[in-house]
Specification:
heterodimer; A: 215 residues; alpha/beta; 5-stranded mixed beta sheet; two-stranded antiparallel ribbon; 30% helix; B: 128 residues; alpha+beta
């Protein structure tokens, strides 16, 4: 087992949350190593959203930011949207000026890969109300944050610090993102800043480095 | 018609009765993320069995009914989010034994069929 995976397991077991290292996941992997660490400044990024508008994390300073990894073909994502649970959170928090960014890291030819037009249509049909939709077919953004599943959720505070990473909920009644944002808005530390995400693996493209190493 | 058995079951895990008549029951359940067996959203067959069993119990609808055995065919994979409807029909009755046929469908498509052999003892199985 990789050192990072062992470390992540130990941190989970011990309940220590000061540091986050996410292992590469399954055969397909993003082209960059994860740089997101809980309690540390979230990795900055500059991308163009589905409407062609540039989006930079640094430009969102002063606001809470939620990153939601999305794949419309993933049954877990479909179930959350059919239940209205994701849209409910999007609606509630964007109404409080939280910047909710939906990110699709599905590579071309992989499940969930969409064009900008398809992304807008699918989110609209599902009743989604994110602030922005970001396409990341090269998996760079997914790699920076170590996104492993759809959904995989990250919350960044107004100072740009990563304060939550993990699942949207406990598969039952507790919504971890809602809990984290509620606590943060009340000026309290996030009580469960790191949870194990569940869902489909992010459908990254083949990583040339990984392919070379495996030969 | 009043539900006489298995009323304490969690509808999120075993389905919600939609229709109940003598010798017939319809129970519906939406496969939740808690039922997933893998990262592709495949639902564990045990949850389908639980839904089918619930429908079989309600087709008998006696406070003491229990399952003795079952012969079940899993016909199609079920995914998280699928809406499933189990229909159960009482096919045979002999002394304390009841035979119930169950089909679970996703829309029009059958995903499970089975024969459930039930017993209706004179006392609740937990009573001495």
């Amino acid at each position: 087992m990789k050192k990072s995976a062992v470390l992540a397991s130990l941190l989970l077991v011990a309940g220590l949350v000061g540091f986050l290292v996410l292992p590469r996941y399954l055969a397909s992997a993003p082209p960059v190593e994860a740089q997101a660490s809980l309690g540390k400044p979230a990795p900055d990024f500059q991308v163009v959203d589905v409407t062609g508008e540039p989006v930079a994390l640094s430009a969102l300073s002063g606001k809470y930011v939620v990153l939601e990894w999305w794949n419309h073909g993933c049954p877990f994502v479909q179930a959350l949207y059919q239940d209205g649970k994701m849209q409910e959170q999007q609606r509630a928090w964007t109404g409080r000026d939280v910047q909710w960014l939906v990110v699709c890291s599905s590579a071309p030819g992989k499940q969930g890969h969409v064009t900008p037009e398809e992304a807008i249509r699918l989110q609209t049909e599902a009743g989604g109300v994110p602030t922005r939709i970001l396409l990341d077919p090269q998996g760079v953004l997914g790699g920076l944050y170590g996104a492993r599943t759809t959904p995989h959720m990250f919350v960044i505070d107004p100072q740009g610090v990563l304060i939550y990473a993990g699942a949207i909920d406990d598969r039952a009644s507790k919504n971890y993102v809602e809990q984290a944002l509620n606590e943060a808005f009340e000026g309290r530390p996030v009580s469960e800043p790191l949870t194990v995400p569940y869902g489909c693996s992010v459908k990254y493209g083949a990583n040339p480095d990984e392919t070379r190493r495996s030969k | 018609m009043k539900v006489e058995t298995h009323g304490a079951l969690n509808p999120e895990l075993c389905g919600r009765p939609l229709d109940l008549a003598p010798g017939r029951a319809v129970v519906e359940m939406r496969a939740s993320v808690a039922m997933a067996a893998d990262e592709r959203g495949l639902v564990h067959g045990g949850f389908l069995f639980g839904l089918a069993d619930h429908a079989a119990m309600l087709a008998v609808n006696h406070p003491n009914v229990v399952l003795a055995s079952a012969d079940v065919r899993f016909m199609k994979a079920v995914l998280v989010g699928d809406v499933l409807r189990a229909e159960a029909f009482l096919k045979g009755e002999e002394r304390l034994s009841r035979t119930v046929e169950v089909v679970i469908r996703r829309g029009q498509e059958p995903v499970l069929s089975g024969t459930f052999s039930c017993r209706v003892p004179e006392r609740h199985v937990l009573e001495p």
